[in-house]
């Protein structure tokens, strides 16, 4: 069976095109996909080919490999992240020592640290696929596997979820 990559696929219209490994462009209709399957550009497929009225058409498609997500493509290399995490641990250790002595970081320093933590959380969100860290609707890192959707006028109890483990 021939293989190829999805060149483009419009889920609303229910069709797209495959660029086969031998250079042929093949029409892909939603009915050729397995039930409950959707494809994105870049997905590697195995398929049969039938000649239709308008050219080659894919039949009995099987997804071999999904394309990598954009978040994973743009993330930092693991070596770079390990250095950042080590530096962040040292920084937080120093803050912890000061907090034990009853001293919070000054406002400017606190905002810088918070921004760094959010950046690292965003990297980890892409890195772990959202299993350990997610960003809630307020843009804060939460240790949960769900995203909360809160409207701007939500009550105080709903807003106080930040930093807690959601159950």
Descriptive labels:
single chain; 167 residues; alpha+beta; OB fold (Dihydrolipoamide Acetyltransferase, E2P); two-stranded antiparallel sheet; 4 helices; disordered C terminus
Can you characterise this structure?
The chain is built from four helices and seven strands; from the N terminus they run βββββαααββα. With 167 residues, it is α+β, with helices and mostly antiparallel strands. It has two domains: 63 residues, Nucleic acid-binding proteins (OB fold (Dihydrolipoamide Acetyltransferase, E2P), Beta Barrel); 90 residues, no CATH class. The strands form two sheets. It has a five-stranded antiparallel β-sheet, with no helix packed on it. A two-stranded antiparallel sheet has the order 6-7. The longest helix has 23 residues. It is rod-shaped and about 80 Å long.
| Structural classification | alpha+beta
Q: Return residue spans where pLDDT drops below 50 for at least 5 consecutive residues.
A: 127-135, 143-151, 153-159, 161-167
Number of helices: 4
Strand order of the biggest β-sheet: 3-2-1-4-5
What fraction of residues sit in β-strands? 25-35%
Silhouette: rod-shaped
For the sheet with most strands, the description reads:
5 strands, antiparallel
H/E element string?
A: EEEEEHHHEEH
Distance between the termini: 47 Å
Topology:
Layout: E1 3-10, E2 15-20, E3 25-29, E4 44-52, E5 55-65, H1 70-74, H2 78-100, H3 107-127, E6 134-135, E7 141-142, H4 156-159
Antiparallel strand pairs: 1-2, 1-4, 2-3, 4-5, 6-7
